[in-house]
Design brief:
Number of helices: 4
Bound molecules: zinc ion
Shape: rod-shaped
Distance between the termini: 100 Å
Largest sheet: 2 strands, antiparallel
Order of helices and strands: HHHHEE
Low-confidence stretches: none
Strand order of the largest sheet: 1-2
Length: 154
């Protein structure tokens, strides 16, 4: 029984391979012999062959691809919109906070400024930013006469 089932498995595999034209002459002979002796496999082979023939004979139908297949689902696109709006609002808010901080700092009295400078004052007026950015830019020009320093205020 098991031997027969195994040969039937091979026969069904051979049937599909035969339809694809992949069987060797030897395999085709084996299949033919099996189909002569085994009625179920012969029925199966006829059915598969008929279905395959039908499918292959049927005219090709054009595949209609809807244009909106690649668009995001409405729900997802709404979510993306919401996130984008929220991010934009947050960015503007952060910018406003930073800008107001900068304004406040700019209005703050500068200690050790030119007006309040005393001899021996420790504060350095050239650097009033936390990052140590210079208040004025030193432009050095190389001229034939030598090095000249020019101070440019902002
Ligand atoms: Zn069989």
């Amino acid at each position: 029984m098991e031997v027969r089932a195994r040969s039937c498995d091979r026969a069904t595999e051979f049937v599909s391979r035969e339809l694809d034209g992949e069987l060797s002459m030897f395999e085709r002979a084996l299949l033919g012999r099996h189909l002569q002796r085994c009625e179920p496999c012969a029925v199966y082979a006829r059915q598969v062959a008929a279905v395959t023939e039908m499918v292959r004979a049927a005219p090709l139908e054009p595949i209609r691809v809807r244009n909106d297949v690649w668009r995001l689902p409405r729900r997802v696109s709404r979510l993306v919109q919401k996130v984008a709006v929220t991010a934009a609002v947050a960015a503007v808010g952060i910018w406003l906070v930073v800008a107001s901080l900068e304004t406040t700092r700019g209005r703050a009295p500068v200690t050790g400024g030119v007006a309040g400078s005393k001899a021996g004052a420790v504060t350095d007026d050239r650097h009033d930013w936390s990052a140590g950015l210079p208040r004025s830019m030193q432009v050095v020009q190389l001229l034939p006469g030598g090095l000249y320093g020019t101070s440019l205020g902002y």
